[in-house]
Amino acid sequence: MFFTFFGTVIIAGIIGYASERSKFTHNGIIPSIIICVGGAFLFFLVGRMFGISFGSAGLDAIISSIGALLIVPTHFRR
Fold this sequence. Notes:
Layout: H1 2-21, H2 29-50, H3 57-76
Helix pairs in contact: 1-2, 1-3, 2-3
Protein backbone atom coordinates (compact mmCIF):
# COMPACT_ATOMS: atom_id res chain seq x y z
CA MET A 1 0.00 0.00 0.00
CA PHE A 2 2.92 2.35 0.73
CA PHE A 3 4.35 2.09 -2.79
CA THR A 4 0.89 2.34 -4.30
CA PHE A 5 0.36 5.65 -2.53
CA PHE A 6 3.64 7.11 -3.79
CA GLY A 7 2.90 5.84 -7.30
CA THR A 8 -0.47 7.57 -7.15
CA VAL A 9 1.15 10.86 -6.13
CA ILE A 10 3.77 10.62 -8.90
CA ILE A 11 1.21 9.79 -11.59
CA ALA A 12 -1.04 12.63 -10.40
CA GLY A 13 1.88 15.08 -10.53
CA ILE A 14 2.73 14.01 -14.06
CA ILE A 15 -0.90 14.42 -15.14
CA GLY A 16 -1.03 17.90 -13.58
CA TYR A 17 2.18 18.99 -15.29
CA ALA A 18 1.18 17.52 -18.64
CA SER A 19 -2.26 19.11 -18.54
CA GLU A 20 -0.74 22.52 -17.97
CA ARG A 21 1.94 22.13 -20.64
CA SER A 22 -0.61 20.95 -23.20
CA LYS A 23 -2.85 23.99 -22.49
CA PHE A 24 -5.66 21.76 -21.18
CA THR A 25 -5.85 23.98 -18.09
CA HIS A 26 -4.76 27.56 -17.41
CA ASN A 27 -4.16 27.43 -13.65
CA GLY A 28 -0.38 27.45 -13.52
CA ILE A 29 1.89 24.45 -13.13
CA ILE A 30 1.99 24.32 -9.32
CA PRO A 31 -1.78 24.77 -8.79
CA SER A 32 -2.53 22.10 -11.40
CA ILE A 33 -0.18 19.65 -9.72
CA ILE A 34 -1.70 20.42 -6.31
CA ILE A 35 -5.23 19.90 -7.66
CA CYS A 36 -4.28 16.58 -9.26
CA VAL A 37 -2.43 15.27 -6.22
CA GLY A 38 -5.29 16.31 -3.94
CA GLY A 39 -7.89 14.60 -6.09
CA ALA A 40 -5.83 11.45 -6.41
CA PHE A 41 -5.11 11.39 -2.68
CA LEU A 42 -8.79 11.81 -1.86
CA PHE A 43 -9.83 9.04 -4.22
CA PHE A 44 -7.02 6.82 -2.92
CA LEU A 45 -8.29 7.14 0.65
CA VAL A 46 -11.96 6.75 -0.27
CA GLY A 47 -11.15 3.80 -2.48
CA ARG A 48 -9.27 2.07 0.33
CA MET A 49 -12.02 2.75 2.86
CA PHE A 50 -14.96 1.64 0.74
CA GLY A 51 -13.35 -0.69 -1.80
CA ILE A 52 -14.12 1.51 -4.81
CA SER A 53 -11.87 1.08 -7.85
CA PHE A 54 -11.88 1.50 -11.62
CA GLY A 55 -9.26 -1.19 -12.07
CA SER A 56 -5.56 -0.90 -11.29
CA ALA A 57 -4.11 1.73 -8.97
CA GLY A 58 -2.54 3.58 -11.91
CA LEU A 59 -5.85 3.83 -13.73
CA ASP A 60 -7.50 5.09 -10.55
CA ALA A 61 -4.81 7.79 -10.25
CA ILE A 62 -5.24 8.92 -13.85
CA ILE A 63 -9.04 9.06 -13.71
CA SER A 64 -9.15 10.82 -10.34
CA SER A 65 -6.52 13.39 -11.41
CA ILE A 66 -8.37 14.27 -14.59
CA GLY A 67 -11.65 14.38 -12.67
CA ALA A 68 -10.18 16.79 -10.13
CA LEU A 69 -8.88 19.03 -12.92
CA LEU A 70 -12.31 19.13 -14.50
CA ILE A 71 -14.25 19.78 -11.30
CA VAL A 72 -12.11 22.20 -9.27
CA PRO A 73 -11.12 24.92 -11.77
CA THR A 74 -14.50 25.16 -13.45
CA HIS A 75 -16.23 25.44 -10.07
CA PHE A 76 -14.36 28.59 -9.07
CA ARG A 77 -13.90 30.15 -12.49
CA ARG A 78 -16.39 32.73 -13.73
